[in-house]
């Protein structure tokens, strides 16, 4: 089962991804975590430290290349993997960044999304941007403004793919968030099983 996690910075994607895999392994199930980073955090730190402002198109080109390669490697690693696959971030994240930067969607990323295996579930972690901003300041590993986080939230919701996302509120405790995520995965797995049963029945005929 392939599950993709998206959400604005500070929504807890990486923490949630680790928790889901740990919980699945604890239950005796096969599970793997794959991260599809784009190097954006490192670029933002370099920019803040040295006062370098990367042009939007250049930053997007570098991030798109890195993220696309990581996504392709991740999907290769999971070929015929029998257990739970959690992907922390995906191409949708880059499409949202393009929205924020005022860049067009382009053709390559949407094309790649259509060609890659369809996920069983895309979970979008929903959090108030002010809470996300407090988390980012507390961890002190990257820099994001509140305006940026509000823009990211709007950008995600404007993606045409967003209608297929499952929203999960990530503003609670880690245990509460994990419980919601496990319910979302269980519901998706149940729906997938029902669809497979119907498909088998249809193929067998009357």
Explain this structure.
This protein has 206 residues and is an alpha/beta fold. It has one domain: P-loop containing nucleotide triphosphate hydrolases (Rossmann fold, 3-Layer(aba) Sandwich). 59% of the residues lie in helices and 13% in strands. The protein contains 8 helices and 5 strands. It has a 5-stranded parallel beta sheet, sandwiched between helices. Helix 4 packs across helix 7 and helix 6 crosses helix 7. The longest helix is centred in the C-terminal third of the chain and has 31 residues. The chain starts with a strand and ends with a helix. GO terms for molecular function: kinase activity. Keywords: Kinase, Transferase. This is Thymidylate kinase. InterPro entries: P-loop_NTPase, Thymidylate_kin-like_dom. Pfam families: Thymidylate_kin.
Q: What can be said about this structure in brief?
A:
By secondary structure, this protein is an alpha/beta fold. The chain has one domain: 3-Layer(aba) Sandwich (Rossmann fold). A 5-stranded parallel beta sheet has the order 2-3-1-4-5, with helices on both faces.
CATH top-level class: Alpha Beta
The main pleated sheet reads as: 5 strands, parallel
**Element string (H = helix, E = strand):** EHEHHEHHEHHEH
Helix percent reads: 55-70%
What's the mean pLDDT score?
89
Number of helices: 8
Strand order of the largest sheet: 2-3-1-4-5
Produce the secondary structure layout.
Elements (H helix, E strand, L loop, with lengths): L1 E6 L5 H14 L4 E5 L4 H11 L5 H22 L6 E5 L2 H11 L6 H8 L5 E6 L2 H11 L6 H13 L7 E4 L4 H31 L2
Keywords: Kinase, Transferase
GO molecular function: kinase activity
Protein name: Thymidylate kinase
